[in-house]
Amino acid sequence: MLPIAARIRAAAALPLAAALLLAALAVPAQAAAPAPQNPAAAPSTALPALSDKASAILARAAGDPAQARVLAEEGGKAAFFCANCHGDGGISRYPEVPNLAAQNPAYLLGQIEAFLSGRRKDEFMQGLMKVLSERDKAAIASYYAAARPLPSGPPGTARGAELFAQLCATCHQPDARGAETFPRLAGQQPEYIRRSLRRYLTQSGERIYAPMTAAVTRLGAQNIDTMADYLAGLK
User: Fold this and answer.
1) Model-level pTM?
2) Gap between the Cα atoms of 126 and 115, Å rounded
3) Where do the domains of the chain lie, and which CATH numbers do they carry?
4) How confident is the model over 87-139, as pLDDT tens digits?
5) What is the CA angle 207-212-218, rounded to 5?
6) How is 40-96 classified by DSSP, letter by letter?
7) Which of 6, 77, 145, 210 could form a disulfide with 2 if both were Cys (CB 3.0 to 4.6 A apart)?
8) What is the pLDDT of residues 226-235, one digit of tens each?
9) Which of 32, 86, 34, 82 has its CA nearest to residue 208?
């Protein structure tokens, strides 16, 4: 069987239906859940290291609107395969897959590097990231950052707003639109938020970041739905 990266490259040359089938074969049919983290091991508090080359490309584009437009246009072409799950313009097709529209570009770049390094666990995503050049990484981040976001649900409750202000706003900002290396959560898919928060809470291994585990522990499992629904309803 071809390596995962080779299968993804081959998928890019096929019609959409065939490409989706071939890409699906890159994911084990019954992947075992990652082993729980060793409680004796100190959890990481570091954010993913960014690619110097891709970061430099983003920085140059940030200071030149014409270059930024070109980079975003390139990203739209490079992200054609991403759209199968993350949707056209970064509005996800599936509830468990995150919206990427208007996401902070440095954060997106950091997550690409996190998949490549194994800090985020997803064999399919890791395989996709391996075929990207440094310019592809920067272009895709630029494209999604420029895309128009939409709410993923009705307005949330006052309790959700209260919990967010107490536990999340310091890093993710009061409007939940994030900062340079902290993700935008406003308008995010509620099921994706639920799954991510539960993974941090249970330390199941897919998401590893000690400050988030501490925050979700304070939130409590009983409030995860309230938080997810509140964030989904934001613009």
Assistant:
1) 0.78
2) 5
3) 48-149 (1.10.760.10), 158-232 (1.10.760.10)
4) 989 999 999 999 999 999 999 999 999 999 998 989 999 999 999 999 999 99
5) 130
6) TSPPP-PPPPPPHHHHHHHHHHHT-HHHHHHHHHHHHHHTTTTHHHH-GGG--SSTT
7) 6
8) 999 999 999 9
9) 34
**Which residue in the block uniquely carries the two structure tokens 């629904």?**
229
Residue 131 identity (one-letter amino acid) = V
Distance separating alpha carbons of residues 77 and 70, to the nearest angstrom: 11
| DSSP helix/strand/coil, 128 | helix
Among 129, 130, 125, residue whose Cα is nearest residue 27 = 125
Average confidence score pLDDT of the chain: 84
Q: What is the residue type of 214?
A: A
